[in-house]
């Protein structure tokens, strides 16, 4: 899972993981105020500083390991390690701060890693049709866009199904 600061990556991993997720969250401090833009997520008090990790078993022979990346650019050096061997990825987006997911989209496109954009439908945020989000993000027509609530297990499962199906199709195309 990748995306901007405060978009819900930790929440999504926690909602769907069958194990207690590993979280590397720290309290936001005054020192981080100049670099951590909390506009739109003013109630946020913690931030991921390394990664989130969870797991979900789809079948006996198919297990997804879930890694959530930190959202701030100062932690991007971790992304290469977390993406090594990835068959697919989720870019979590917030329509109030859609520009925050451009870096994640560029990252996966450059590395040819199949990804799904999941729009986390925050309370009070405007809702847009999937095609409008696709156009705003200038995505390839085959890139899935799904709406979700990162807090809800069924919604998070729908996101994972989308990325697994998309990764399998991309792999079959070679």
Automatic annotation (TrEMBL):
Pfam families: ATP_bind_1. Keywords: GTP-binding, Hydrolase, Nucleotide-binding, Receptor. The keyword Cytoplasm does not apply. SUPFAM superfamilies: P-loop containing nucleoside triphosphate hydrolases. The keyword Membrane does not apply. Transmembrane segments: none annotated. PANTHER family: ATP/GTP-BINDING PROTEIN-RELATED, GLIDING MOTILITY PROTEIN MGLA. Belongs to the GPN-loop GTPase family. This is Signal recognition particle receptor subunit beta.
């Amino acid at each position: 899972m990748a995306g901007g600061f405060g978009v819900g990556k930790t929440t999504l991993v926690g909602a769907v993981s069958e194990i207690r997720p590993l979280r590397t969250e720290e309290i936001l401090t005054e020192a981080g105020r100049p670099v951590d833009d909390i506009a739109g997520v003013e109630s946020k008090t913690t931030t991921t500083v390394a990664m989130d990790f969870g797991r979900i078993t789809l079948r006996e022979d198919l297990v997804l390991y879930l890694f959530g990346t930190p959202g701030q650019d100062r932690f991007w050096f971790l992304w290469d390690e977390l993406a090594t061997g990835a068959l697919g990825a989720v870019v979590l987006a917030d329509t109030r701060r859609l520009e925050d997911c451009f870096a994640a989209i560029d990252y996966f496109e450059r590395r040819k890693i199949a990804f799904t954009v999941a729009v986390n439908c925050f309370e009070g945020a405007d809702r847009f049709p999937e095609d409008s989000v696709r156009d705003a993000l200038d995505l390839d027509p085959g890139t899935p866009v799904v709406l979700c609530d990162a807090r809800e297990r069924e919604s998070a499962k729908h996101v994972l199904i989308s990325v697994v199906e998309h990764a399998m199709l991309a792999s079959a195309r070679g």
